[in-house]
Give the backbone structure.
Amino acid sequence: MVSFERDTIVTAGRAAEVIGLAAIIGGNLFARAGMHPALREVSDPAERGKVVNAAWRRYGTIESLSLAALITGWASSRLGEADCRSLSERQRRLGMAKDAAVAAVALTGVAAAIQGIRFSGMEPEGAVPLEDGSKAGSSASLGESRAKQRLNLLGAVNLASALTLAGVNAALGQAKATEDAGRRRCRCCLR
């Protein structure tokens, strides 16, 4: 019974991790490829700032919940791997890479959220003048332009960290599948 309960918790955690990571990557990609360029269609630079900051404020709740799900899922999967003796050397190395990637996603995600809140607060209602969702407008102050650059950098590093984590997760899954298949072949040969 304890094994079933632990497996259920680990499975739920892994699902939360995958969903959280998907929302983090999806939100980041949507902003960069969809929303930010589309804001060029808004004629007033201050209005662009209001729109982009309002959208990120709303999505910030999803990002926060996604980050919490990612960390919770990671922690539960680490619980499932509590006995490191059951892991191969390759899986242990990938596990350490995953730990680093989760930490990078978490740290850059929190830093980007803090910077985003700070940036949004630089003008009433978040109306920092923008050329598009990614670049400060010509009428933005030097401080606003630099804050937007820092925010863009943090967002890019967060996206790169999240994509790295997705790659490490894929490598871990493949390592387990390959090693499990090898063990099944060995058992068949012994019969």
